[in-house]
Design goal:
55 residues; 0% strand; mainly alpha; 2 helices; single chain
Length: 55
């Protein structure tokens, strides 16, 4: 593992590419989680309103 890290540090282009790939993957995961959280929040609010006014 140490050898791999030293290899990346000696080749900054590969390090930058690897960091960009990791950043894109993290961004995609966070974006999907935020979408799911937004949908769950809206569904929860609608459920509370339905129970309050029609329950």
């Amino acid at each position: 593992m140490t050898g791999f890290i030293e290899f990346l540090l000696s080749n900054p282009i590969l390090l930058i590419l690897l960091l960009l790939i990791v950043a894109v993957v993290l961004f995609a995961v966070i974006k999907k989680l935020l979408k799911l959280f937004t949908i769950a929040t809206i569904a929860g609010i609608l459920y509370v309103l339905l129970v309050k006014y029609f329950g």
